[in-house]
Amino acid sequence: MSQAIESPYRSHTCGQLRATDSGRPARLAGWVHRRRDLGHLIFLELRDRYGITQVIVDATEAPVAHAAASRVRNEFVLSVAGTVAARLAGTENVRLATGAIELRASEVEILSEAKTPPFYINEPDAPIDEALRLRYRYLDIRREPMLRRLLLRSRLVQAIREIHHEHGFVEIETPNLIRSTPEGARDFIVPSRLKPGTVYALPQSPQQLKQLLMVGGLDRYFQIARCFRDEDLRGDRQPEFTQLDLEMSFVDEAAVIGFVEELAIRVMAAVVPDRPLLEVPFPRLTFHEAIERFGSDKPDLRFGMELIDLAPELTDPTGAAVSGFRVFDEALADGGRVQAIVAPGMASASRSQIDELTELARGYGAKGLAWLAVEADGSIRSPIAKFLGAERAAAVVARTGAKSADLVLVVADRPAMAADVLGRLRSELGSRLGLADPDVFAYCWITQFPMYKWDQENRRWDATHNPFSGVRPEDLDLLTTTSGDLARRAPDDPAGQARALQYDLALNGWELGGGSIRINQRDLLARSFALQGQTADGMAEKFGAVLDAFEYGAPPHGGIAIGIDRWAALLADQTNIREVMAFPKTQSGSDLMLDAPSAPEPGQYAELGLRYVGPART
Question: Which pTM was predicted?
Answer without folding.
Answer: 0.93
